[in-house]
From TrEMBL:
Source taxon at top rank: Bacteria
Species this protein is from: Acinetobacter baumannii
Entry protein name: Uncharacterized protein
Length: 136
């Protein structure tokens, strides 16, 4: 999942209490906590930033917290989890149903976390969902 942000956005997110991660641009390594970098990292070129999305563990399965309405951006691909038939719908336009799904906690930022959330919900209720459900 690509959620790169600029140094200015990273600094603003940090001021809002978000957890910001950093790494040298082009580095294949994972992002690291900001405490691994000097405070001047925001003013120097050559670094990229992202916001660490909080995770939840349910029934032994860890996935990112569902998307909130404040995080949603028009035109962004999001992944709506349906429980009546184990499937995930990719949506990139705002509808009343999408807003209700976001507000109910059934929308993720990427397909992998949507699958994990659906599997965790099913497992918590005593059911096992196979890995072959649809992402439409």
């Amino acid at each position: 999942m690509n959620n790169l942000i600029t140094a200015a956005e990273a600094f603003a997110a940090l001021q809002k209490g978000k957890t910001v991660l950093c790494r040298p641009i082009g580095d294949m390594l994972d992002f690291s906590d900001l405490d691994q970098f000097p405070a001047s990292v925001f003013g120097k070129p050559g670094f990229e930033f992202c916001i660490k999305i909080e995770t939840i563990e349910l029934a032994g399965i860890t996935f990112t917290k569902p998307l909130t309405i404040d995080e949603y951006e028009e035109g962004q691909d999001v992944f709506v989890i349906t429980t009546y038939s184990p499937s995930i719908y990719v949506v990139n336009f705002r509808t009343t149903a999408l807003i209700e799904s976001i507000n109910s906690g059934f929308v993720q930022r990427d397909a992998e976390n949507a699958k994990l959330q659906l599997k965790a919900l099913s497992k918590a209720l005593g059911f096992e969902v196979s890995d072959d459900f649809s992402v439409i």
